[in-house]
């Protein structure tokens, strides 16, 4: 009797092991099939979205319009370099804000719309890899450059998620700048509103006009008043500007700056305009039409950077070189 009981127990153990092995193989087969499908299938519809292969993304970014445009520029440069589609990931906490920003960019530059691909419309493949990219000794930094071909080219994964947020270094897209410029024609509504603002100021467009940007209220780097006064006088004297347009976010600071500059008898006839427009797209357009030289008092500001980028003569750009050396996230600052 004992002999039969032992055999029954042994038989039960063997059957249990067989069942476990079969179950393990079935699960593995399902997982392998899922990833194999993701690796080999073409783009397809998933839950009313399009599943894309051969893509990459950065960390989500909840900051302002200039940062979003810079990420699109950098995304385009990396896209062209490693032959993958850039997908813009949006964090749930700032999805509403980001969507409004992208709508504003589409209105400002209608042709740029084809490069604003967000994860709202596209499904990212689960066959992906997360990669620490362009960091500074293991710390995420805004402005380091890493050659994308070193680690991102010819990888087998469908999607590469790069652990970097701002990627603000022009080396990523400089070689493709002529291509990018083809998509930066201003929209009709932006042009119409921008022209009305220019007409209101009564500035002679044929005169040498200098511009400067102030950033003080929402940025770790704040425009220094003494530097701003010296810079404004430099534009009037060295650039022979007859008019100055001051862009910025601190109207009181800007008005004080304009008054102090004209206390100098040499510049008493200069026309200094404090821009009170709140539309960034229109400001970029105004800069493209009027600014023959440009001063960035806070070069870390991407909005100010783009004001200078779009300026009428962007080979006459000046800036404060004291670029927050105490903040590690600005390490590798280039732009």
- State the helical fraction: 40-55%
Taking the sheet with the most strands, its summary is:
5 strands, parallel
Q: Order of helices and strands, N to C?
A: HEEEHEHEEHEHHEHEHEHEHE
Report the span from N to C terminus.
86 Å
- What's the CATH C level of the largest domain? Alpha Beta
Mean pLDDT: 83
Commentary on this structure:
The protein is an alpha/beta fold. It has two domains: 49-181, no CATH class; 188-330, Rossmann fold (3-Layer(aba) Sandwich). 41% of the residues lie in helices and 14% in strands. It has helices spanning 2-40, 65-82, 95-108, 148-151, 177-181, 188-201, 225-238, 251-262, 280-290, 302-309, and strands spanning 44-46, 49-52, 55-58, 85-86, 122-124, 128-131, 159-162, 209-214, 243-248, 271-274, 293-296, 317-319. Strands 10-9-8-11-12 form a five-stranded parallel β-sheet, sandwiched between helices. A four-stranded parallel β-sheet has the order 4-3-7-6, with helices on one face. The radius of gyration is 28 Å and the shape is elongated.
